[in-house]
Structure formats: structure tokens, C-alpha cells
Predict the structure.
Amino acid sequence: MTVYEVGPRDGLQNESAVLTTPSKLELIAALARAGLPFIEATSFVSPRAIPQLADADEVASALPLVPDVTYLALVPNEKGLQRLRAAQDRPGIPKLWPAVFVSASESHNRKNQNRGVEETLSEIEKLVRDVRAEGSRVRAYVSTAFGCPFEGAVDPRRVAAIVDRLLGCGCYQVSLGDTIGVGTPTQTRRLVDIVLREAPPDSIALHMHDTHGTALANVLAALDRGIATFDASVGGLGGCPYAPGASGNLATEDLVYMLVGMGLETGVDYGRLVEAGRLAERLLGHRLPGRALLAERTREV
């Protein structure tokens, strides 16, 4: 099993408090010590759009060098990629893999990126060609794959067609996002089955939000279909600024607790992961919604 930690980017972007750069790096280091193999560290989107991540350049140039940890950063366009390159243009810092994103629904993509899906896909294809020529890898996200806050239900065949474009242009993996947390296990199985008609299971991941408390149930449904990579956020941090009503991500502690309890190997130290969750709470000044963190607090009383 592979867990992608997205809290430092997808989690912090939806917080009203803006953490200092040293605080972000402290949290990232704690997550790395917990053994998370992939950590999404920041985003090179416009600071005007996401002021919580305005220090992406500083974070990227000071990431802790930890063996067997790979960092990723969201890159919306060529300008974002140039910022990533500039931040990485110095010796002795860990390499960042860029991650690209597109919505399955036209309305959300225009809200999120101010352009249509086709225009976004065309730019992604060019960006991925450039990055791969430099010897790096690119991950992709498909938002609103389970439902859109503006359009409602999304046709899984449309999602599958977008996945095919992303894999076809050279993305090594595509993460399907339940941006507003409306997915159910039956819907998850159907979506995954349609996507896997053309895509190998190891090229697909799930990025679940827990708005209706069904995130772990959807993970189980995907496990039954052979999916073995899941995104999660420390403490359940997160949400989408351009998706009204979207609550936090699936908590990393909850995911790891369940997978380990099922006898599945994650490589993550659960105790250190809980410590990272507590650190996130201290830095942000409030409790996080993750159920495992709550259980650990209760056990200590």
C-alpha cells in the first residue's frame, strides 16, 4: 500500500490561518520522519489565489533531505513550472516532482483555473513533455471525479477519457478526487471499473474527502478492485476553496490505522504519524477532525 500525504498543500490551502515557512517545514519534517514515502509539500499557484501557500518558493528551497521520501508540488501552468525550477536551482536540496490538475467538470475547472477542461489538458500535455525531457516524473489529479458542486453528477466515462489523456501524455499516475465527498462504495466500484478498462491499477490512485463520512468505505471498495495508492491529509486537514461545502480530506492517521489493522504494509510509523497530527494541531491552534487523533486524545484522558 502507498500513501500520498497531501496535508502541507491540500490541507493548509483551506485554513484561515497562514503558517510561517519554518512552521510548514517543521510539519513536513515530522511527516517525513513518520515514513510517508510521498509528501505533497506546496503549490506554485498564484499567491493571490491561494495566499496560504504564497511562500512556495521558500518551502521548496528548504525541504528536509530524508532518505526514501519524495516531494511533490502542484504546478498549474508553465509559469508555475518555472517557479519550481528556480526554487530547485541550488545544490543539496531534495528534488520536487511536479503535479498537474484538471477537473472532470467544466464549471469547476473554470472556477478553479479560469479556463476550460480542453485548454487545461492541452497545456498539461505540453508541460509533461517538457518535464519528462528533463528526466522528472509528473503526477496528475482529476478533481470532481465523483461529483461537481456546480453540475452535480459527473459521467464516469468522461473521467475515464480524461485519465486516458493524462496517462497517454506521460503522467505516471492519476489520482481521482472526490472533491466534495459525495462518493459511495457502489459509485467508487463503478468508476474504478470503468477507468481500469484502459488503465493499469498501479497508475490510478484515489483522493477521497470525508464530507459524508464515507471516505474509508470508498477506500475499501477501491481496494477490492486492486487500487493500492491513496491520498490522505494529516489530521483530516483540507478542502477545496473553489468547491462550496467541501470539508476535509480523509485523515492520514485514519487511513493508516485501517490498512495496518487489515494486515497491509504501509511503511508508515503510526505513532510518529499521530505525533505529526498533534504538531499540526498546535501549529494551527485548533483540533483537527481526524478520528484516530480523537481516539488517541481520549485514550490519554
